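Issue: ligand-bound run for iron/sulfur cluster - logging full I/O for the record.

Environment: standard queue, default settings, no custom constraints.

Inputs:
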Amino acid sequence: MSSFLPSPPTRRIVLILGLGAGVSLGAASAALAKTPKSAVGYQTRPSGANACASCTSFLPAADPAQAGACKIVDGEIPPTGWCALYARKAG
Ligand code: SF4
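Outputs:
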């Protein structure tokens, strides 16, 4: 059976493969880290005076009229939405 690795693998190749695996796992865990909307009572309308636009976790789109994102909740997040993790920005 042939292998693309020299036999035995050099220390440099082992290090490169290990770093690559670590980067891939880090990216995968970051992608999985967000909470689904269904788990946090997300709604597309504000809750009283509270809405995503004034939440510390909201990441607005370049065009403020478009849906943005959230640091902790998955999916597109319009500025007029709300969820149970809402935390008002200071100021
Ligand atoms: S945590 Fe909830 S309320 Fe705050 S921006 Fe994200 S989805 Fe909106």
